[in-house]
Specification:
Blueprint: H1 4-13, H2 32-44, E1 49-52, H3 57-70, E2 77-80, H4 93-96, E3 103-107, H5 114-123, E4 126-130, E5 144-146, H6 161-175, H7 186-195, H8 202-217, H9 221-230, H10 236-253, H11 257-263, H12 268-295, E6 304-308, H13 315-326, E7 330-336, E8 339-345, H14 352-357, E9 365-369, E10 372-378, H15 382-392, E11 407-410, H16 418-426, E12 438-452, E13 455-462, E14 465-471, E15 481-491, E16 497-505
Helix pairs in contact: 1-16, 2-6, 3-6, 3-7, 3-11, 6-7, 7-8, 7-10, 9-12, 10-12, 11-12
């Protein structure tokens, strides 16, 4: 049976703590000084600079950081965030048709933009690529490439695109001898780190902690709007399950520039209006996703591949849902003429990027990392890709498919008090690399309240100790005595109390 002391010991052992002074220096990123010098030259010569972002939260956040930094020192620049449906991903030849520039800087994309890099070279445009995605053995031909995964001296490889953009701002600040506190962008950077599921270890943990503090102080107009919407302390879980999905919904269902404008808003009321618009798009996304999930058919393969006339903006989420439902990697393809656009998600130790790259000869293009990928393929090659991936995945064993549950163990109600809650809060932020602790216990149900549909509030008792609990999406019958898996939450409605969040009745 777990005690508070044991819980503290377990949580302490999995955290790699560093202080803010130990964050790796920008100079450890290869090519970053070269990139900063070129940007300085462009500013001095009044050259046209175009920043090319991406339509997910990380790409939009990266674009926002660059915009907010550059707008204080230069005005001959423009942010271009591709439209998923019109341009496709990243710096594409199609997007380049709309760009007239002397210097292009990518953020959160570009490491696989070989054709676009060649077009830039032909047009005499210098290209600086800043990215964090896994590169292939050959790199695009660019003026500079700033990526932790192409930087032998950079000690922590798993950072997101917004962090790389933030580092580029630091290098430019140094190069131009500017007086600027880059900590003012950490609320945006923290959102990107969590949304892009970066491990909350090392420098990521430090930056997220600093960013959450700034976010909760509501200094930026967008943060004020979020606080108006939530009206309580924002934690990492709120970003992961509430804020990030709304920001992502813009690029999925309409245009990512809505999310970008929200992050760079100068007025709180305007930011709040944009956040309400993002909320509506997120509700539309959920409805679209629900309709697809209800009608999708899955074959009994070890690697799930499905195609259909699906909304392109939600295929990544559908893939993620299939992974967690079936405990198998999944790629969902949306039809676009004779081309299929796919988004894949993985689990456990299964490297989806490596598996897909082994089928490169079948693809029209691909990119990504261990747990997620994007790819294009002609429809006629779909069945062959399906057979190949299901053959190649056989090299993994059953343990590689395991999604760790992070249950610390069994706990008695007598140990669940405000002291334990304070211990759990002290190990925030929780997320990838530092998952929120779960527990198991057995208790008697004293009272059941139906909140709505199949969501319930319970009063549980164990040895004369009573605790409230909530369970969502529960379709079964309740026994008088239940054994259940749960996390411990803080409820701030009318004071500070404990609430158990039941994940599963065992």
């Amino acid at each position: 049976m777990l005690t508070k002391a044991k819980i503290k010991e377990i949580l302490s052992s999995r955290i790699e703590e560093i202080d803010s002074l130990s964050i790796p220096h920008f100079s450890l990123l290869s090519d970053i000084k070269k990139a900063a010098k070129r940007i300085k030259k462009a500013i001095q010569n009044n050259e046209k600079i175009i920043i090319v972002g991406d339509y997910d939260v990380d790409g939009v956040s990266s674009s926002a950081v660059m915009h907010l930094f550059l707008s204080e020192i230069y005005n001959n620049f423009e942010i271009k965030i591709p439209n998923r449906f019109k341009h496709g991903y990243g710096l594409s030849p199609k997007l380049l048709e709309e760009i007239d520039a002397d210097l292009i800087i990518t953020v959160d994309n570009g490491i696989s933009s070989f054709e676009a890099a060649e077009i830039c070279k032909q047009r005499g445009i210098d290209l600086i690529i800043t990215d964090h995605h896994t590169p292939s053995e050959i790199l695009p031909e660019a003026y500079a490439i700033v990526n932790p995964k192409t930087s032998p001296d950079f000690p922590f490889k798993e950072i997101c695109g917004a962090e790389v953009a933030w580092y580029l701002c630091a290098a430019l600040k140094h190069e131009m001898k500017l007086k600027k506190d880059l900590r003012e962008f950490l609320d945006i950077v923290a959102i990107a780190i969590i949304a892009d599921v970066m491990p909350l270890q090392n420098m990521n943990r430090v930056l997220v902690n600093m960013g959450l503090k700034r976010l909760n102080r509501a200094i930026s107009p967008f943060a004020k709007a979020i606080k108006r919407f939530f009206n309580n302390e924002i934690k990492s879980v709120d970003i992961a399950f509430n804020i990030a999905p709304r920001l992502n919904a813009a690029g999925r269902m309409d245009d990512a520039n809505i999310a970008f404008k929200f992050l760079i808003s100068k007025d709180e009321n305007e930011a709040y209006r944009l956040y309400l618009e993002l909320d509506k798009l997120n509700n539309l996304r959920k409805e679209t996703e629900k309709n697809i999930i209800e009608n999708i058919e899955i074959e009994e393969d070890n690697f799930i591949l499905v195609k259909g006339d699906y909304h392109e903006g939600v295929i990544g989420i559908i893939a993620s849902r299939l992974v967690h439902k079936h405990n198998k990697p999944a790629i969902v393809f949306s039809k676009n003429g004779d081309l299929l656009k796919g988004s894949g998600r993985s689990l456990g130790n299964i490297d989806i990027f490596e598996l897909v790259s082994e089928c490169e000869e079948l693809l029209e293009g691909f990119g990504g990392h261990k747990l997620a990928c994007g790819l294009n393929i002609k429809e006629e090659k779909f069945e062959l890709l399906k057979r190949k991936l299901n053959e190649k995945i056989k090299k993994y064993n059953e343990k590689d498919f395991f999604i760790e549950d992070f249950v610390l163990g069994e706990i008695a109600f007598s140990e669940i008090d405000m002291e334990l809650l304070d211990i759990l809060n002290s190990f925030e932020p929780y997320g990838e690399g530092n998952p929120k602790p779960k527990f198991i216990s057995t208790a008697k149900i004293e009272h059941i309240q139906n909140l709505k549909e199949n969501h319930y509030k319970l009063i549980l008792s164990q040895n004369d100790i009573y605790l409230p609990a909530v369970i969502f999406r529960y379709d079964g019958e309740f026994d008088e005595i239940i054994t259940f898996k749960f996390s411990i939450e803080e409820n701030n409605f009318r004071g500070r109390t404990i609430q158990l969040m039941i994940e599963e009745i065992l």
